[in-house]
């Protein structure tokens, strides 16, 4: 806020709710009912928030400065998002991701089809950062395996969705993982590390369920279905596989462990992948740069590729810096709203009222979970389900002396992995259509997706796995909201 903040009008609680209600109303009606684009709806909500700020006495320059300030804080992670796109494209170019998929498919054991489906989609989604890509390629192949073995398709689909969203949740290549870190004001690797408190127990619980179910007599010892064989053969025909292709992910893993700067690390992994693609796959430097910018395409390989099974292009044709532009545009529109909303002080007033009801860490975690699920169901959009609760509860976490990585973890626990379990969301429709199983049928088997909520609630009550701010940071985190309440009353 500027130096003349004390001259501005203070909002009542009712007026403070207007921009939030406007955003939710626009998204529910505009996006959920009419199917309109999210970005212009967010800009309309931003206009409402800016109008309230203008009514309070703020100038246009004040509003723009607030929006720019929000975007400036997000810019480093936006740059990481761009690098993630280049990383995926170059790893496809080098054969790094196909090499992992290849060995995963070759090692499938029909006796352990459910646990194999869970593990394999987990590996692919961690490597690619995309739940839809892993479910729509390897997941489809695994559903063919399950059908050939007369295994419950609902169980197999649940295992695929659980594995796909395990990677979408913790992969540094995932746009939702990066977005959650952005909106909660924490760093990517701190966010991922803190996610492990709820994600690893959920992963182990799901693995036990699939292992027990796999030994229940439903599975027979049969050959690997033709679909998997065709994918393996196609990958063998396209790429020259060698263990050195694992060097790019090893480099990223080493850098993450040593806490090296993320952007130089990712760009170095891109360069290494391009070198491997040129040296081992016989592709050109120009094609490597094209994969880095525009994404990899199977047409880069010489010869006829039309006869290759359709699952292979769906797996390989992805990535590139430009592939992240739609996500980045959403970030800009979302932060335009957030910047104008912050200027009005509406969030301070709303949070102050919420804090009169929420008096414990467990209550705050539960309120975050409930709000995230509500926004996910109302808007059918996973990104907004991360943004809205983050903006609403960020200061509340700081006021309770909690690190905001608790917030980023909770909104992912209740948002990213819950979205495919709601039949009317885009993720729910995609998974059900792609895997051929209704959402409500696969839901009980998607253990990884919903188990984290229970662990989050348990941690909130017990205090285990809750990161707290140092005393000095707690004192400086957020000014006391009591004066706002007093002025309003």
From TrEMBL:
<feature type="transmembrane region" description="Helical">
    <location>
        <begin position="138"/>
        <end position="166"/>
    </location>
</feature>
<dbReference type="GO" id="GO:0015297">
    <property type="term" value="F:antiporter activity"/>
</dbReference>
<feature type="transmembrane region" description="Helical">
    <location>
        <begin position="77"/>
        <end position="100"/>
    </location>
</feature>
<feature type="transmembrane region" description="Helical">
    <location>
        <begin position="195"/>
        <end position="218"/>
    </location>
</feature>
<keyword id="KW-0472">Membrane</keyword>
<feature type="transmembrane region" description="Helical">
    <location>
        <begin position="40"/>
        <end position="57"/>
    </location>
</feature>
<keyword id="KW-0812">Transmembrane</keyword>
<feature type="domain" description="Na+/H+ antiporter NhaC-like C-terminal">
    <location>
        <begin position="163"/>
        <end position="464"/>
    </location>
</feature>
<feature type="transmembrane region" description="Helical">
    <location>
        <begin position="264"/>
        <end position="283"/>
    </location>
</feature>
<dbReference type="Pfam" id="PF03553">
    <property type="entry name" value="Na_H_antiporter"/>
</dbReference>
<feature type="transmembrane region" description="Helical">
    <location>
        <begin position="445"/>
        <end position="467"/>
    </location>
</feature>
<dbReference type="GO" id="GO:0005886">
    <property type="term" value="C:plasma membrane"/>
</dbReference>
<dbReference type="InterPro" id="IPR004770">
    <property type="entry name" value="Na/H_antiport_NhaC"/>
</dbReference>
<dbReference type="InterPro" id="IPR018461">
    <property type="entry name" value="Na/H_Antiport_NhaC-like_C"/>
</dbReference>
<keyword id="KW-0813">Transport</keyword>
<dbReference type="InterPro" id="IPR052180">
    <property type="entry name" value="NhaC_Na-H+_Antiporter"/>
</dbReference>
<protein>
    <submittedName>
        <fullName>Putative Na+/H+ antiporter</fullName>
    </submittedName>
</protein>
<keyword id="KW-1003">Cell membrane</keyword>
<feature type="transmembrane region" description="Helical">
    <location>
        <begin position="12"/>
        <end position="33"/>
    </location>
</feature>
<feature type="transmembrane region" description="Helical">
    <location>
        <begin position="112"/>
        <end position="132"/>
    </location>
</feature>
<keyword id="KW-0050">Antiport</keyword>
<feature type="transmembrane region" description="Helical">
    <location>
        <begin position="357"/>
        <end position="378"/>
    </location>
</feature>
<feature type="transmembrane region" description="Helical">
    <location>
        <begin position="238"/>
        <end position="257"/>
    </location>
</feature>
<feature type="transmembrane region" description="Helical">
    <location>
        <begin position="324"/>
        <end position="350"/>
    </location>
</feature>
<keyword id="KW-1133">Transmembrane helix</keyword>
<comment type="similarity">
    <text>Belongs to the NhaC Na(+)/H(+) (TC 2.A.35) antiporter family.</text>
</comment>
């Amino acid at each position: 806020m500027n130096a003349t903040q004390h001259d501005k009008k203070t909002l009542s609680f009712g007026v403070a709710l207007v921009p939030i209600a406007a955003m939710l109303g626009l998204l529910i009606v505009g996006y959920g009912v009419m199917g309109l684009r999210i970005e212009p709806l967010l800009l309309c909500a931003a206009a409402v928030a800016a109008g309230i700020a203008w009514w309070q006495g703020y100038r246009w320059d004040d509003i723009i400065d607030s929006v720019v300030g929000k975007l400036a804080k997000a810019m480093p992670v936006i740059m990481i998002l761009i690098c993630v796109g280049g990383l995926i494209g170059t790893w496809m170019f080098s054969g790094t991701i196909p090499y992992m998929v290849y060995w995963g498919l070759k090692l499938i054991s029909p006796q352990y089809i459910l646990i194999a489906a869970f593990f394999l989609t987990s590996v692919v989604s961690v490597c690619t950062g995309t739940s839809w890509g892993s479910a729509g390629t390897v997941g489809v192949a695994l559903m063919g395996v399950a059908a050939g073995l007369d295994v419950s398709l609902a169980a197999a689909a649940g295992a695929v969705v659980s594995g796909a969203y395990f990677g979408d949740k913790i992969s540094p290549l995932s746009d939702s993982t990066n977005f959650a870190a952005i909106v909660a004001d924490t760093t990517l690797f701190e966010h991922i590390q803190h996610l492990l408190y709820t994600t690893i127990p959920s992963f182990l619980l799901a693995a036990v369920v699939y292992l027990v179910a796999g030994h229940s007599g439903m599975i027979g010892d049969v050959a690997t279905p033709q679909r998997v064989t065709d994918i393996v053969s196609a990958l063998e025909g396209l790429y020259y596989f060698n263990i050195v292709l694992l060097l790019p992910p090893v480099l990223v893993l080493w850098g993450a462990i040593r806490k090296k700067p993320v952007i130089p690390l990712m760009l170095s992994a891109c360069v290494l992948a391009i070198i491997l693609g040129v040296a081992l796959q016989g592709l050109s430097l120009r094609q490597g740069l094209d994969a880095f910018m525009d994404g990899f395409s199977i047409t880069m390989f010489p010869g006829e590729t039309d006869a290759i099974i359709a699952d292979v292009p769906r797996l390989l044709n992805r990535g590139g810096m430009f592939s992240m532009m739609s996500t980045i545009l959403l970030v800009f529109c979302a932060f335009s709203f957030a910047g104008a909303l912050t200027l009005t002080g509406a969030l301070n007033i709303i949070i102050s009222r919420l804090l009169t009801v929420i008096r414990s860490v467990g209550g705050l975690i539960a309120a975050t979970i409930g709000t995230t699920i509500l926004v996910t169901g109302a808007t059918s959009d996973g990104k907004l389900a991360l943004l809205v609760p983050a903006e609403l509860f960020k200061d509340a976490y700081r006021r309770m002396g909690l690190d905001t990585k608790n917030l980023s973890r909770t909104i992912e626990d209740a948002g990213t992995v819950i979205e495919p379990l709601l039949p009317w969301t885009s993720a729910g429709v995609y998974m059900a259509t792609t895997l051929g199983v209704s959402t409500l049928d696969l839901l009980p088997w998607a253990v990884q997706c919903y188990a984290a909520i229970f662990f989050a609630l348990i941690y909130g009550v017990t205090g285990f796995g809750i990161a707290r701010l140092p005393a000095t940071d707690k004192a400086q985190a957020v000014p006391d909201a009591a004066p706002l309440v007093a002025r309003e009353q």
